[in-house]
Amino acid sequence: MKITVAGAGYVGLVTSVCLAELGHEVICIDIQSDKIETLQEGCSPIYEPELEPLLQRNLKAGRLYFTKNSRYAYSDADVIFIAVGTPQDEDGTANLDQVYDVTETIALHIEKDVIISTKSTVPVGTNEKIKRIIDSRKLPKLQIDIVANPEFLREGSAVFDFFYGDRIVLGAENDESAQVLEKIYLPLKIPIIKTDIRSAEMIKYASNAFLATKISFVNEIARMCEKVGANIDDVTYGIGKDQRIGPYFLKAGLGYGGSCFPKDTRALMQTSGSLGHHFELLEAVIQVNNRQKSYAVMKAKEILPSIKGSKVAVLGLSFKPNTDDVREAASITVIKELLEEGATVMAYDPIAIKNAKKIFGNAIDYTDHIQTAIQKADLTIITTDWEQIKQFPLDQYSLYMREPRVIDGRNCYRLEEVRKHPLIYVSVGRPTVITTLTSRM
After folding, report:
1. Same domain for 28 and 161?
2. This prediction's pTM
3. Selected catalytic residue, list 18, 28, 260, 412
């Protein structure tokens, strides 16, 4: 099948490469010349495990192409996927300018009947507007069908999620177009859910909002655990064994971030408000998450004589492991608050330093070695649970730091192991550990 993907961001690029891996002829189009040139050379502009080898293999096999040429991309396609960004406006609503711009371009360049499938996360009713735009501009003889096909790819495991996802959602205006998309995905052997278009659009927002709710809920429980002397690890293990709840997204920490949860929860809030419905639960979820990102600095004020003039090591810049994405990352809030308090910051991350520099420039120092970050530090704050951090030996903190104080915002270490080392160790929803050399004798 001849497939075109509009947009070479996280979703568009992963979708393009993986569809080519399934054997389709795929053209990925983007308006950024430098990005297209990089991709044509077989280099991925984003960090995503397993992506670049697949990119290079399918380029070499002649199944994958990258272009800026709209006529080349759209004129002979059987299916066109829209996978451009929908960033949030200042009021939290989804900005659909890129979606509508690419829709108009598609309408002007299609030359045969085609199915247009929207992967971009869009508010309910958007696909109907896409249909109206194309119908008003396309050649009269052409038949266009619309399918809402929301993506459920997690950054850091997007390639895995494409091939081994939980479900594929197809919201179509007729069964024939749904069957064409179903044929594309059948080799994956992933359950396919067919709905109307508006339900498919809502499934995406509802999924992300529910997962965000679980994260904020467990962080509130973690705060209660600290007050009553309970251990959030034991609590979440206990409730996660209930099949009605499940063990996923019950990890206490510094809140959610990235390009999806913050944006989609706010967009759903705005949609709700525009319909005259006050979504009180989701409003609380967002407030809890915003507050949770300040948890680390709040704790720093409790264990440091003064943040002003202190050297603080921040371990982890990306919003989660295995990605270079720093959008809405807890580290950004933590570093900004530390700088406002007068601290000197040395940040570690194995992948995301380049993107963090776009935010902080020379206001902080950077390193890709944990030992360098914590050298002579007064405090270490862990903001991302990279495997490199989880495997970093606990005895190194007392060896390298001026004072071995650690605030673990991702609960990377087991308390049983922490107690074997001379540390002041603060984590989320668990008892604080203060171990001295004397107490270990």
Report:
1. yes
2. 0.93
3. 260
